[in-house]
Amino acid sequence: KNEVEQSPQNLTAQEGEFITINCSYSVGISALHWLQQHPGGGIVSLFMLSSGKKKHGRLIATINIQEKHSSLHITASHPRDSAVYICAVDPHFGNEKLTFGTGTRLTIIP
Amino acid sequence: DTEVTQTPKHLVMGMTNKKSLKCEQHMGHRAMYWYKQKAKKPPELMFVYSYEKLSINESVPSRFSPECPNSSLLNLHLHALQPEDSALYLCASSHRTGQRYGYTFGSGTRLTVV
Predict the structure, then answer these.
(1) Do residues A16 and A110 make contact, with C-beta atoms less than 8 angstroms apart?
(2) Region of residue B69 (phi > 0: left; psi between -120 and 50: alpha; otherwise: beta)
(3) Which of A43, A46, A90 to mutate to test the interface with B (most CBs of B within 10 A)?
(4) Residue B58 pLDDT > 60, yes or no?
(5) Residue-level pLDDT at A92
(6) Which portions of chain A are predicted below pLDDT 50?
(7) Which member of A31, A42, A101 has the closest CB to residue B90?
(8) Across residues B43-51, what is the average pLDDT?
(9) Cβ contact (<8 Å) for A31 and B100?
(10) Distance, in angstroms, between B41 CA and closest chain A CA?
């Protein structure tokens, strides 16, 4: 079974700061997902990564397959970025079950 | 259309009621999923449909009954629920189960059982 750990569990920062959220997993995977969930809301898929780096607006996601580690970065953070960020791993293509991390609760103070 | 649409957004039901949750996508995805999420916890997989056939049932009680009438629609029929079933129910879809490209979640139905 894949163990997925996220750090930090909670993060509070000032508007404009550069944010990094980390995700580590124990077993080799085929892909990793970064998800965003606002309080009381549904989930938005931000990235799906198999290797390297992806960028969308102010969000950047990287993955190091050898080290079994991924990071989500937010540049020029804004209060609307306040949400829970969840990483989820796909153990193998063909396996139908994602394994989720417990999430990082991000609060950006104006 | 790049969305998964869930209705209703909120539902309050009694323990003797029968209700249904609906999920719809028009992205051509052939895998659809039901998740249950309790407060401050990650989502827990309930069911997976692949090409309109149930492929995974995560030992979910029979008071939850999924249905996939066509490739765009996924229902979750609820009957005789318990208060502990109160949660956010999320639907998701992806290209296929073996290639989870375009994994997209709906905004969820917040269910309260009274």
Answers:
(1) no
(2) alpha
(3) A43
(4) yes
(5) 66
(6) none
(7) A42
(8) 93
(9) yes
(10) 7
Residue B6 touches chain A, beta carbons under 8 Å: yes
State the pLDDT at residue B100: 65
Local structure of B84: helix, strand or coil = helix
Per-residue H/E/C for chain B: CCCEEEECCEEEECCCCEEEEEEEECCCCCEEEEEEECCCCCCEEEEEEECCEEEEECCCCCCEEEEEEECCEEEEEEECCCHHHCEEEEEEEECCCCCCCCCEECCCEEEEEC
* Residue B42 to residue A86, Cβ atoms within 8 A: yes
How far, in Å, are A109, B4, B10, B44, B109 from residue B48 at the CA level?
39, 15, 23, 12, 18
Q: Do A94 and B56 touch (CB under 8 A)?
A: no
Q: What pairing do the DSSP bridges indicate for beta strands A104-109 and A99-100? A: unpaired
Q: Do A45 and B105 touch (CB under 8 A)?
A: yes
pLDDT digits (tens, 9 = 90+) for A58-84: 999 999 999 999 999 999 999 999 999
Q: Is A32 helix (H, G, I), strand (E, B) or coil?
A: strand
